[in-house]
Amino acid sequence: MIKQVTYGVKLIKELSNEPFLGTAGLNIVIDNPESVVEIMSSIIGDDRIQLLTEWSNLYHSQNTEKCKVSSKTLKWSIIIPEEMRKFLGLIILMGQVRKESIRDYWSTDPTISTPTFSHTMIRNRFKSIWQAWQFSGISQQTQDSGQLFKIWPVCEYFVQKYRSVCSPKQEHSLDEAMIPWRGRLKFRTNNPGNITKYCW
């Protein structure tokens, strides 16, 4: 084991001494680097927004009986691309503003309220889009892509998108992250020695 580590360190040093012939940096021009909307639009293009909208509408039309409907739920209406952009924006914002539950993002309690969410989209509409949200077309969902076949088209899209938007530098530092999960998942792992025991 020690020999393998020593060889790996030696190989890295040898590779780092080679001249870097590539050109690192952005491959596109962003007019306003401080604009979050412009930056996100360069990563998630209109073509992907349109496909997510079409796939979600198709899924709802084919699985109407599976979608939970309560007395407070609005009558379903077709999702439009602008709504999908707002929906994705709220999901990204949820990663920055942590709360106990999704319901709390629309809370009117002054101690925990975040008005941006209610001003952008009402809660019931967000939940209805959440239920119908799809990452690929029904015809594309085959087992050829393994257990991640339902999200594989999106994964491939982002890989190609990042390659076209940005050219990496010569050296990288990669790390893994464990996602906590206690639900039903075939590839869920159990690591008793970690703080996060159940994850994937």
Provide structural commentary.
The structure is a single chain. The protein is mainly alpha-helical and 200 residues long. It has 7 helices and 4 strands, in the order αβααααααβββ. The chain has helices spanning 2-16, 36-43, 46-62, 81-94, 115-120, 123-132, 152-165; strands at 25-26, 166-167, 189-190, 198-199. It has a two-stranded antiparallel sheet. The longest helix has 17 residues, at 46-62.
**Fraction of residues in β-strands:** under 5%
**What would you call the shape?**
globular
How would you spell out the order of helices and strands? HEHHHHHHEEE
State the low-pLDDT regions, or none: 1-5
Separation of the first and last Cα atoms: 27 Å
Assembly context of the chains: single chain
Q: Strands across the major sheet, in which order?
A: 1-2
Secondary structure tally, helices: 7
Q: Let me know the number of strands.
A: 4
Please identify the structural class as seen in this structure. mainly alpha
* Helix content range: 40-55%
Radius of gyration: 22 Å
Mean pLDDT: 79
**Largest beta sheet, briefly?**
2 strands, antiparallel
Provide the number of structural domains: 1
Properties at a glance:
mainly alpha, two-stranded antiparallel sheet, disordered N terminus
